[in-house]
């Protein structure tokens, strides 16, 4: 079975999964073994859909919500039979609804979180750290690292420029965002690709003071020995919010195995494992605050609040972009500058 997956989310029991305490995927590998699983890794959302559009076929895919519609419209995926997923009934209804198209369940939500600016409080003046504009502050040139994620960077630029419809920019707004990112580019030490092999070491050793990140790096900094003085910003313009889920390949010959595999990720213990080990929220609405090992993380994620991603004054949920091709072309212009 071939799986399009983010690095680190390989099933427990596979050689690639080395994090202690992980149990997501364990039910599947315990029953069927790990030798039948092959992973193709995602580096960003645009790269993932690009793989599929150029002919790569997968049994199970793990994209994020802003691209669900692209997979459905492209005919790359088929609906799930939720009756084969015993834990489906426990999932957050709001996230479940986001995976429905044409009255059918095309995406099974699993992981969610926030995207924001993480910065070293011992290196960055707190007066400078109020919003997304920190990425454009020349005072910190060479100590900044934005993500090599095309659509995300345009969302950041849009919010910084005051365009709240960040995923539906007009031609003029897209031109302004493009120019803004071209101006920002020289301030980066590098655009990070891998959260664990690029970003985390650079933040830890102090090469980078300011970066785009998800909340897991903030927890990592607190738990590091000695702790690293990070702050995970609540920008004045609002954080980004995201969620991802599993999709079923259109031409899979492993229909029932795929359902077994996904059930091994969305069951209660697997979802707890996701939050307690990787510090992301899970779609399991039955998870309790008392089950999360890090109380500060549980509070930050608002565990138990089914509307956690719905407060538009604080969170901008990443969504489908009708002008995705134009954004990709604009990103090529930025990287070539």
Key terms for this structure?
337 residues; alpha/beta; D-Maltodextrin-Binding Protein, domain 2; 2 domains; 11-stranded mixed sheet; two-stranded antiparallel ribbon; 12 helices; 13 strands
What's the helix and strand layout?
Layout: E1 2-6, H1 26-32, E2 38-42, H2 45-53, E3 60-61, H3 68-73, E4 77-78, H4 93-98, E5 100-101, E6 104-105, E7 108-120, E8 144-145, H5 150-161, H6 171-184, H7 195-205, E9 210-214, H8 215-223, E10 230-232, E11 239-249, H9 255-266, H10 268-278, E12 281-282, H11 295-301, E13 315-317, H12 324-336
Parallel strand pairs: 1-2, 1-3, 8-9, 11-13
Antiparallel strand pairs: 3-11, 4-11, 5-6, 7-9, 7-10, 7-11, 7-12
What can you see in these coordinates?
This protein has 337 residues and is of the alpha/beta class. The chain has two domains: 2-111 and 241-309, Periplasmic binding protein-like II (D-Maltodextrin-Binding Protein, domain 2), CATH 3.40.190; 113-239 and 316-336, D-Maltodextrin-Binding Protein, domain 2 (3-Layer(aba) Sandwich), CATH 3.40.190.10. The chain is built from twelve helices and 13 strands. The strands form two sheets. Strands 1, 2, 3, 4, 7, 8, 9, 10, 11, 12 and 13 form an eleven-stranded mixed sheet that branches. Helix 1 links the parallel strand 1 and strand 2 (38-42). Helix 5 (150-161) packs across helix 6 (171-184). The longest helix is centred in the middle third of the chain and has 14 residues, at 171-184. It starts with a strand and ends with a helix. The mean pLDDT is 94.
